[in-house]
Amino acid sequence: MDYTLEKKSVPVREAVFDGCLEQPIDLDFTLPDYCPGIEKILKCTVTPKIHSKSLNGDRLTIDGAASVCVLYIDEEKRCVRSCEHSVPYSGSLNVRCDCSDAVVLAFAKPDYVNCRAISPRRLDIHGAFSLCARVEAIVDKETAVSCREDDVQLKLNQDVCSRLCALSQQQFTVNEELEPSQGSPAVRTILKSSVRVKSGECRIAGDKAMVKGELTVRVLYIADNEIAETAVMEFSVPVGQVLDTPGIENDAKTDYRLQLLSCDVRLKEDGAGDKGAAIAVEARLCAYIAAYCDEKISYVSDAFSTECELEGEYSPLQIARLSDICRETCITKSSAELETNGISKVIDIWGESCTAESGFDNDTAIVKGKLCVCILALDNDSTPFYTERSVDYICPLKLGETYGGDLMLDAFSSAESVSYRISSGNTIDLRCEIMVEARAFCAKTVRVLTLAHGDDEHKKAQSDCAMTLYYAHKGESVWDISRSYSARPDDIMRENEIADDALDSDIMLLIPGI
Question: Fewest CB within 10 A of the end CB: N or C in the chain?
Fold first, then answer.
């Protein structure tokens, strides 16, 4: 016969999908008429941008465009020039998710790009980028907590997990017009631009959450002056977004972030259609928040019947408790010796492609990886050159309280800034600031009873003894002893005045007969 189990739902955060899809890029590209011809290619980059994402059933569709930017030395003036081409894309992933309230975290990352000049005006470009998505949802996991039949004995465990009490995200757009600072040369042509976002703080008020941060816009450009020098400007723009977060609590631990989906940086046109001095920035961002509250849960990990053989069905349940959410800036220093006839000027230096690997040393989380430092400079002959150097970093993160089980760490990093000093003719000393964000969980997987079936044809023999004497050793479990004798654990503990399941000393037990 099937026993009737009383069950309770436990809401847990679950990543129902986490994967990537590669998107190829194959271009045979001719320079526009306004771009001078190519003498030498310095750098080619692919910047994938996400314009929209939609989850319909089990299908996630991500649309956007990949911007291909080529920095090169022109044929005529031997100065740095650029050309840019946009390639639209649409990718589809099977996420195997039937959750109506799922939150999609999507991002695009460049993988590789190869670029060669077939002629001074024609480029052959091959590469790829990845569309990556993580779909998170609040999933109800049912666990048994009691049974209606009196002969069934249940081993009821209690634990603490971090319940996901709120999960929300919101896309928004930032439009800014940025004026060059006083004393900076005016902009004639933008060669390259980069935009990054840094998460700042999160404030909770009622069922609303305000996520704040900062947008940093960096522009490499040709100045509108007689010498047409190459210069760099950097701007900081505060950003923020209010999210609806029903169910959030003031004392909840919040994992929040601002994610840059796409951006467009261009010279602003004035009323007459001419290019003005201001720089127009349109950035599409996504604000995300997950709030966790500690909650006691109960679950049945084992069962037996005092009357017949019992067959149970079990399923795994991961119990995770949030230990800490860390945001740290680490600094690493390195020296780069460049293969050139000296350095007369550094035009621009920046970091990209920052990797992150995580591990643990006791209660200290270790995040390490590599940062690609990009250097655009002039040699002693005033000829532009470009090179890259890989810089190793290691960042220890001191965690808060840990709760046992396996420590899990989700970490990612990004370049905050790169500064430099020319120490000798062709050597640069680098100082890199790297932002590391990490979420640490203490997790363990337990088995929980889901179904119980009693075999009526195989009844257990009943003992003729009113009491059985059993010599128990320190560390033995009352539950295991009860199972062996088909006795009720509560009866043994009451008869022997025992409060805990685990015995703390050798003891003679009286086991009541059924």
Answer: N
Q: Are 449 and 154 in contact (CB under 8 A)?
A: yes
Specify the amino acid at residue 456: D
Q: What is the pLDDT of residues 3-12, one digit of tens each?
A: 888 888 776 6
Which H or E element spans position 406?
strand 406-424
CB 8 within 8 A of CB 460: no
Distance CA 45, CA 350 (A): 13
Q: Could you give the CA distance from residue 394 to residue 332 in angstroms, rounded to a whole number?
A: 8
CA–CA separation, 472 and 274 (whole Å): 92
- Cα distances from 170 to residues 53, 129, 167, 275, in angstroms, run 12, 25, 11, 33
Residues 378 and 347: beta-carbon distance below 8 Å: yes
| CB burial string 214-231: b at 16+ within 10 A, e below | ebebbbbbbbeeeeeebb
**Secondary structure (3-state) at 185:** coil
- pTM of this prediction? 0.80
Q: 465: which 2 tokens?
A: 């003894």
